[in-house]
C-alpha cells in the first residue's frame, strides 16, 4: 500500500470514527460535516476532498473492519461468498454490534446490506452459481437485519444454528417435494 493511500485510509477511518462517536450523541440526520471534521481534527475542506456523503464513511469503516477481521480470523476467502465464512460473518457482526446498531437505528440498514453485497461480490461465470451465491448472501444479510432489529439478543452460535436450521429445513422441504 502506498504511503499516500495509507494516509488517506487513516484519515477516512478517523472521519468514520468521528461520525460513529457523534451518532452515539445525536440523531444521524442532524450531524453536520463541520461536527465530523472537528471531531476528527481536520478541516471541512479535507472532509470534502475525500468524502462525498456521510454514508461513505460507514461503508469505508465496515469494509476496513471486515478486512481486518477476515485477516485476523485467517479466512481463506475474504470476499465473495463462502459458506465456510458464515461463522466469521456472525462473529464479526456481533463484535461490532454497538456501532452496527447505531447505523441500523439511523435508518441506514440498506448501507450495511449493500456493503456486504460488495464485500461478498465475486465474479461467477456460471449462472446457477450466481443464483446460489445471491440466495445465501442475501439470506445472511436478511438474518443480520433481523438480528440487529432484535438487539443482537442471540449469540453468534445461536445465529449459526438458526441459519443452519433454515437451510436444512429448505433442503428437507425440497427433497420431500421431489
Describe the 3D structure.
This protein has 178 residues and is an all-alpha fold. The protein has nine helices and no strands. α7 packs antiparallel against α8 (127-149). The protein is globular. The protein starts with a helix and ends with a helix.
What's the short story on this structure?
75% of the residues lie in helices and 0% in strands.
Quaternary class: single chain
Instruction: Tell me the fraction of residues in β-strands, as a range.
Output: under 5%
Kindly, what is the distance between the CA atoms of the first and last residues, rounded to a whole number of angstroms?
Answer: 52 Å
What is the N-to-C order of secondary-structure elements (H for helix, E for strand)?
A: HHHHHHHHH
**What best-fitting shape do the alpha-carbon axes yield?**
globular
Determine the structural class based on helices, strands and strand pairing: mainly alpha
- Radius of gyration of CA atoms, rounded to a whole number: 18 Å
Helix content: over 70%
Mean pLDDT, nearest integer?
Answer: 87
| Count of distinct strands | 0
Q: Stretches where pLDDT falls below 50 for ≥5 residues?
A: none
Number of helices: 9
Main sheet attributes: strand count, strand direction, barrel closure: none
